[in-house]
Amino acid sequence: MAELDRRAYGYAERVDDLIVTHGVLVKRLVVVPYGRMQFVDVTAGLLERWMGIATVRMHTAAAATDATIPGLPSAEAAQLRDRLARMGEARGMGL
Asked: For 55, what's the count of Cα atoms within 13 Å in the CB-facing half-sphere?
């Protein structure tokens, strides 16, 4: 069941926004414009650190558009955070 939940998450970086999708029975699609991101957070609890994974959270002014990508390898999560921060700064808003 945990593997099915992990596979239910996906993301795609586009020119102007980030798309995050998740869900098994009900799919949810969240589109977060880079310019609207206030900050990007990478967290890893004790078990996550032991497994070498982390969670990336994008925060916006509207709580409804906050997005989470769990279960990324720690190095990939850090790289994604850095790319999103650069894209947000390039758009002149947020971050």
From this structure: 13
